[in-house]
Each structure stands twice: as structure tokens, then as C-alpha cells.
Amino acid sequence: MKVLLYTHSDYSWVWKYWHQQTDKFINSFDKICMINSNSDFRNDYVVLKYDDKESYKLRILSCINQLNDEEIILFTHEDMFLYSKPNIEVISEYINLIDKEKCDIIKLIRAFENLEKSNLHSFLYKNPEQQLFSIQPSLLKIKTLKKIFTDVPGKNIWEFEGNTNSSYLGNINSLCSFDKNLFFKKFDTKIILPAFLPALKNLLFKKNFLRKLIFFDLS
User: Fold this and answer.
1) Which candidate, 164, 178, 173, places its Cα nearest to that of 215?
2) Mean of the per-residue pLDDT values of the chain
3) N or C of the chain: less Cβ packing under 10 Å?
4) Integer Cα distance of 106 and 46 in angstroms
5) Distance between CA 183 and CA 110 in Å, rounded?
6) 176 in Cβ contact with 127 (< 8 Å)
7) CA–CA distance, 30 with 90 (Å, rounded to integer)
8) What would the 3-class secondary structure string for 53-91 be?
9) What are the domain boundaries of the chain?
């Protein structure tokens, strides 16, 4: 597995936190960065550059078309990072399922309630047909990512994500990871507030607002 990161220099202030957490918890994995053409990234990443005049979809496609279709990647963005070490053994089990094409996507966050249990793994649930792919940390093959970004329409990232349903993706086998006994072990949010993060984290835990913000719930 390789980490496939999408970012833009407009969000370079987040990179500090991305690097800090990635280096700490998943530094052993090879990493690829998709970034706008007038910017650079850290030299231990394979850097693929896109034209930021293009749509989000075309930016992604222009980069992943350079990669091996059978490569298994963790697709993520710069504002989605770890707060503690994931269970690499479980990650390896997920990778094996994707490698053997028992499923197509494993999203490492649960974003819906009352999901049907998958029989492939005790931590896995079936994503709903109305949203089979999300802009959230996910394990999948490059060829699956290509299919999604080719077949699903959308003028922007939000419209694209809203269209990732069975009408466009057919019978793609899309799962998500969740362990109810480890619910609050991790914290992640797409809104990064560096100065206020500790206080915000404590407040959200107290208010029980974190039910949909758990990244890598795999301790």
C-alpha cells in the first residue's frame, strides 16, 4: 500500500500537521503527493503535479493516470490525519481483501448510521447505495479510483461526491470500517483550528459530537 495524498498550496499551512502525524504513525509507507503545478512538496514523496485551472475531477485523473492500475493506495487529503497509531494488522487484512478483489473500497471512517454488516470482516459495514464513495480516507486500487473519477459527474468536489451513488457506480462493493468498542479512540476533523484544537477536541468529546469524525478507528 502507498499513501496517495491530494493537496493544494493554498492549504500549505496544514502541511506541518500532516507531516508531523504521518511521520509519527505511518512513516514506513511509500507516499505520493498530487499537488498544483506551481508548487513543490517534501522530497521524500513522489510528486505528481496537476493544472489547478482544471476541475477537481480532472486534477485527480491527470495524476492517477500515471500510476499502476493494480496499485493499492490510501486515498486521502492534507486535512485528514492521524491522532494515534492505526492497527497495522487490521490495515493489512483490509489490503488483502482489496488485493484479492473481495471488495473495491474500504473507507476508514463510518459516516452513516444503521449500516448493514459485511461478512468479510468483523469491523466492516456496507456503505449505502446513495453514497458509495466519499472524499474521506479510503483504501482502494488505482483502477477503482479511475473508474470513480471517470464515471461520476460533478463540476466541483461537492457535486461530485453527491453523485457517487449506484446510478453511476453500479454494483461496486463499497465498505467502511467501524469498531463500536473503540469509538472515541481517534479524532479528526476537516476543519483545522491549530490554536484552539485542544479545547475544541475536549468540548466535542464532552458533547458527544464526534460520532462521524473518527479516522482510523482500528486500535
Assistant:
1) 178
2) 83
3) C
4) 24
5) 10
6) yes
7) 18
8) CCCHHHHHHHHHCCCCCCCEEEEEECCCCCCCCCCHHHH
9) 2-207
- With a CB cutoff of 8 Å and minimum separation 6, the contacts of 47 are 32, 33, 35, 40, 41
Residue 213: count of CB within 10 angstroms of its CB: 16
Of residues 3, 69, 73, 99, the one with CA closest to residue 42: 3
pTM, full prediction: 0.82
CATH class of the domain comprising 2-207: alpha beta
Q: Specify the amino acid at residue 168.
A: Y
Residue 117 per-residue DSSP state: B
The DSSP annotation for 7-18 comes to --GGGHHHHHHH
Say what angle helices 56-64 and 142-151 make with each other, to 10 degrees: 150
Q: Three-class SS of residue 199?
A: helix
For residues 127 and 169, the answer to whether their CB atoms sit within 8 Å is no
Here the cell at position 32 is: 505520493
Q: What is the pLDDT of residues 28-86, one digit of tens each?
A: 999 999 999 999 999 999 999 999 999 999 999 999 999 999 999 999 998 887 877 88
